[in-house]
């Protein structure tokens, strides 16, 4: 047994060696076979890779089908802090992982979409996993950002499209440039798309995909960077040693060093002759923080993918837009910068638009997959400018979708001015008529506010709208005359001119007490009494007796006119000048009270029977004095002294008339007349309550020189700006100084103005307007504007646009094609004919005879047994 053991051991060793040899031989043969048949291995690897990629793509597509989209809309005052933006970035990074466990990494991303297509200067959308919607819907930005659930966007095909992918170039471990929040970091991108023209099919979109960094990829990247840093340090040490040895050899071989050896007394061995011992430098220790840079820490490190697409139906515009966006991204560049991925061969560039990368780009673009280049590692702090919508520090252009372009003859649009775009193009801009409820224009004399109002009114008139333009100075009428002198407008234009110009002036007529238009009696009495009180500063505390006397007199005269109209004799109506006869002529008063006794209520009859006789004669002076001043002016006497006046502002509203009213001045008498007209306008607008809202025809009163008008009727003008919107009567007012307006008017104007505009002026005059805009622009900027320049804030689609700087429209430029100066005379005659203006002398004679006609009517309709009316000569109005 003992002699057999060595033999068995040798046999076992030989067997093991044979197995090893056989294995090595087999491996060698397999390697040799694979070497000879390498294509089989390559094919197997390709098949495995293809199957794996197909499975991954199918899973990624399935995961991407469950994505959601949110659109963030910021207000004008959105001003986030760095901490709020950083917290938003953390939310985005966290939401990118809210996917099923089986979802491939390429689908685990959150996408920021910055899009400009003409609907908004820059739309800001967030798209990501459906599971992250709850997390992303509540932002740290507070109420200044509205988050709306958004649907998919479907783009129409454009004729020309360019694509680009941006990667980080430069020193990859260095961060991007720290861009301050003021001005907004998005400003370069906004400026790059500011001249986008939707009508040409222009489109620009930026997509930034954010993906949490995988740990294994980060470790591999760090190992690679550390290895590269150590190799670099060793190369530097070797280079330094080589130079050190060369320097030492050079010194010993130099003539100076050899002379020094000859002159010394010491032997060469004693003096250290021979080659010096050179100690090579030791490689410096590589510090991880220095070698890894921004990749040294795991916290808030993400991978990003930046894709850009520009399109247009016009050749060259898409390429130019991409170049603008590329320049905009240069703002973020420092030692690390954004650069387009691809190769340049002379004038050609091979990138995302070409094979073989185009198909992969389109797949990532359509499905939202994130497959960033190896170099695209960033920290959230570097993306601060892209993690939020535009802020208050971003200047947004005004696009056609924000402010529509004015089209002549369109009844839905109201001209506002000329806007100059970032590309230098000018266009007429407008607001929607149904949203322009009230408008206020402020500015110094000659600044262009009246010209702008005229252009707006003329455009509205040509579109079929009705208006009344009240101008105390009459300058606007000859200015507008050539542009309204069209055959289709002449039947709608009426001129009420109370200036009495020319050798034989012609005047229209109006009876504020007239009942031939079917007004309600109490409304007529209230309107005239309120106009008196407004113009003369009466109220129940300062002039209660005067208000009572005037109201009682008006009640009787209106009852007389109602009876005359019902009897078919409107030419026998009393006028406001008959208040004197009613108060001072006992015979006329007795006949009047007898004729309308059954039309007066018990309280009014009791007042005339018991209170009136106790009043002293001097109690009537305060009521009669303003009427006497009106009668002393031949123009106002002729205008107000006709029994059946033609002027009917309610009929003008309903028939889309274009009425020009020129009161003729701003003295005490003119103020009373203006107050009567203003109060009648308010009464007429309120009377539209008898018409269903959908059948009320829009009507626009324009008040030039509000200071003059509100001096006569402050409460009336204030009520217009408060109430008339309900009756589709939209007021436009112009004034030089907002501070000179009465407080009720000023507060109502600013509170309810849909459009607020100002030209240049003194800073003190402009400050109340700019204060409404948060002093942006500042009074200093507005005060230095050129003539005819305006800052205007407007309401469009329910939101405020502006203040935007506009150039006021000049009639000779904007409506040059509509000017008909050769027909101006015909329009003037037609406007007077439509207002039934008659020679002043004719109306004056008729007004003088009206008291007799009224007395005759009362005598004919007095009850049986009533005394005849005796009129003395002193009671006649001469």
How would you describe the overall organization of this protein?
- Helices cover 42% and strands 16% of the residues.
- The chain has 30 helices and 24 strands.
- Strands 1, 2, 3, 4, 5, 6, 7, 8 and 11 form a nine-stranded antiparallel sheet that branches. Strands 16-18-15-19-20-14-21-22-23 form a nine-stranded mixed sheet, sandwiched between helices. A two-stranded antiparallel ribbon has the order 9-10.
- Helix 1 crosses helix 2 (38-64), helix 19 (634-640) crosses helix 29 and helix 21 (668-686) runs parallel beside helix 23.
- It is elongated and about 160 Å long.
Number of strands: 24
Rounded radius of gyration (Å): 45 Å
Distance between the termini: 167 Å
- Principal-axis shape equals elongated
Overall helicity: 40-55%
Largest sheet: 9 strands, antiparallel
Average pLDDT level: 84
- Given as residue ranges, the uncertain stretches (5+ residues, pLDDT < 50) are 269-274, 864-878
Structural class: alpha+beta
Give the count of helical stretches: 30
Q: Strand portion, in percent? A: 15-25%
Topology overview:
Elements: H1 4-36, H2 38-64, E1 67-74, H3 82-95, E2 110-116, E3 123-129, H4 133-137, E4 145-149, E5 160-170, H5 187-192, E6 203-212, H6 215-252, H7 255-263, H8 288-292, E7 301-312, H9 317-329, E8 336-340, E9 343-345, E10 348-350, H10 358-367, E11 377-379, E12 413-420, E13 426-432, E14 439-442, H11 449-462, E15 466-470, H12 476-484, E16 493-497, E17 506-507, H13 521-536, H14 544-566, H15 579-584, H16 586-595, H17 602-611, H18 621-632, H19 634-640, H20 649-654, E18 658-662, H21 668-686, E19 699-703, H22 706-712, H23 714-723, E20 732-735, H24 743-752, E21 755-758, H25 763-772, H26 779-783, E22 789-796, E23 799-807, H27 811-814, H28 824-834, E24 838-839, H29 840-848, H30 850-860
